């Protein structure tokens, strides 16, 4: 609570107590009533709920008028302060909303998370840990309240609405996550996003294999089945717990400073045509290339040092954040 608010509350409380004290003492003296009766008369008069009994002296009548006017003044002051506080709250909310929109309008290469449920929130945590900018798009009050509480950028809207996607900056985005709880909604989100951007990375959530097939047909690049993935992860933990623990360690951005990264080799890269041995990746950066994905989609696991790097290859490397940054700089 701010100082100005505390000051206004103190003024209202002080004025109320002063009115009660003056009225109680005045009625006690003028009407020879007990203190409790005098306080009761003061409260009844000040709150304009009526009169206990009609006063029988001019002084008591004047005091009754003063207490009534004082009550009106205090309640008017409290009402005005309450309205002003509400107006300030609305104004502050409007300013925050405008500021959030300006930030979203300035984003580039960000991700749009359509659906801020359990899956969307977990993805947002990974993006936050990795420093990847993103915008949440949802219509649920609970989801938006959670986004606001966690301090993430959000906009009220649906991923299946072209206008809402544009307001989330889809024309400048790097990718989109269709993470709604409904397969049908994720299908509409994928169709809407793909119709606006052919080059957008789209990762969608599906609950069944049939839904996965339809999402791929609709234009999703990757489809995740949370329940199937959870079952696979449980089996890995049961059969190979140390391997599973290591993979979890290096795949999560929120974990220690050791992780996996993928780097796409562009045609303009100066390392194109050179071998891993010639580039001296390990000694130069400290990172280790554990796999290469070729343009046709196949993987070369543990590539030979004499393997030449070609345009379109994707390097899968492991290392610390600093080592991986050096590797990215090497292939920039």
The level-1 CATH class of the largest domain: Alpha Beta
Placed side by side, the strands forming the largest sheet appear as 3-2-1-4-5-6
Largest sheet: 6 strands, parallel
Number of helices, counting only DSSP H or I runs of 4 residues or more: 13
What ranges have pLDDT less than 50 throughout 5 or more consecutive residues?
A: none
**Net shape:** elongated
How many domains make up the coordinates? Answer: 3
Number of E strands: 10
CATH architecture of the largest domain: 3-Layer(aba) Sandwich
Helix and strand content put the structural class at alpha/beta
The amount of beta strand, in percent, is 5-15%
CATH topology of the largest domain: Rossmann fold
- Euclidean distance between termini CA atoms: 50 Å
Taken in chain order, the helices and strands follow as HHHEHEHEHEHEHEHHEHHEEEH
Q: Name the CATH homologous superfamily of the largest domain.
A: NAD(P)-binding Rossmann-like Domain
């Amino acid at each position: 609570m701010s100082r100005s608010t505390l000051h206004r509350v103190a003024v209202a409380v002080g004025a109320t107590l002063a009115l009660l004290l003056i009225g109680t003492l005045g009625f006690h003296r003028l009407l020879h009533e007990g203190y409790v009766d005098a306080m009761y008369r003061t409260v009844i008069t000040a709150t304009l709920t009526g009169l206990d009994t009609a006063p029988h002296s001019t002084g008591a009548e004047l005091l009754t008028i003063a207490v009534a006017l004082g009550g009106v003044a205090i309640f008017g002051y409290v009402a005005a302060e309450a309205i002003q506080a509400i107006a300030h709250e609305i104004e502050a909310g409007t300013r925050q909303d405008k500021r959030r929109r300006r930030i979203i309008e300035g984003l580039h290469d960000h991700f749009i998370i359509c659906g801020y449920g359990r899956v969307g929130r977990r993805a947002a945590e990974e993006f936050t840990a990795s420093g990847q900018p993103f915008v949440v798009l949802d219509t649920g009050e609970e989801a938006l309240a959670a986004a606001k509480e966690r301090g993430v950028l959000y906009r009220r809207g649906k991923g299946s609405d072209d206008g809402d996607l544009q307001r989330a900056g889809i024309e400048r985005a790097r990718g989109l996550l269709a993470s709604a709880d409904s397969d049908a909604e994720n299908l509409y989100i994928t169709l809407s996003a793909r119709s606006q951007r052919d080059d957008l990375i789209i990762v969608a959530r599906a609950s069944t294999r049939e839904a996965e097939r339809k999402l791929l047909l609709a234009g999703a690049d990757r489809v995740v089945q949370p329940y199937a993935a959870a079952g696979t992860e449980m089996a890995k933990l049961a059969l190979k717990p140390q391997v599973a623990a290591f993979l979890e360690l290096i795949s999560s951005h929120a974990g220690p400073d050791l992780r996996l990264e993928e780097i796409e080799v562009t045609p303009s890269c100066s390392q194109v045509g050179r071998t891993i041995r010639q580039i001296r990746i390990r000694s130069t950066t400290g990172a280790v290339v554990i796999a290469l994905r070729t343009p046709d989609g196949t993987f070369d696991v543990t590539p030979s040092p004499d393997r030449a790097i070609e345009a379109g290859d994707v390097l899968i490397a492991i290392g610390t954040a600093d080592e991986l940054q050096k590797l990215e700089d090497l292939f920039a």
